[in-house]
Amino acid sequence: MRLFKKRRKRRIETTTPPVPVLQTERLVLRSFDENDAVDVYAYAHSNQVGPMAGWAPHASIEDSRKTIRMFIDGGEVWAMVEKKSGRVIGSIGLHKDTVRSIGGAKELGYALGETHWGQGYAAEASQEVLRYGFEELAAPIIGVSHFPTNGQSKRVIEKLGFSYEGTIRHAQQLPDDSITDIVCYSLLKSEYEEQKK
User: What's the CATH number for 22-196?
Assistant: First the structure.
C-alpha cells in the first residue's frame, strides 16, 4: 500500500473563457498558466512593483500561484511574455469599469517587473490592449489610473494619449495601511480613432 500518491501536474479548471492571444513587436500577451508562477514571483516579490499597483509584494511562490488563479478565473488579464527570453515580465488587464455605468466601459491596468522599466514595454502592451478594447470589444471609453507617487506610469499614460480627469483624494488604503489618492484618466473611442490617423 502506498502512503503517498504521486502528485500530478494540476490544470486549473475555469468556466471563464481565456483572453485571446495578442502580439506586439517584442511581446506575446496570453492567458496565464500555473507554470508562470516562478516568473511572476521574480517580479512580484519586489517592494517596488506591488505597492505601485496597490498590492503587497508576494512573500512566496504560493502567493504568485494564488494571483495566477485569480487572473485565470477572471479572464481579463494577460501575461506579458517577452519574445526574446520567453519569460513573463508583467501583467496587463482590461476590466469592466466599475465607476462608469455606460455599457462596455473598460479600465486598463498593468504591472511590470522593475528590470524592464523604462524600456517601453508597458506602453507597447497597452497600445495593443487598447486596440483590442476599442476595435474588437467596441469599448466606448477606457479609463486608467495611477498613484501620485508613480511617475513612470503617469508618463506611460500620457504617452498613450489619455486625458486627465481628476484626482480622487484619500481613495485607497495600501497594504502598509497608508492612504493614497488615485489620479484618473480616460480615452474615448473617438479620441483613439483620431490618434490613429
Answer: 3.40.630.30
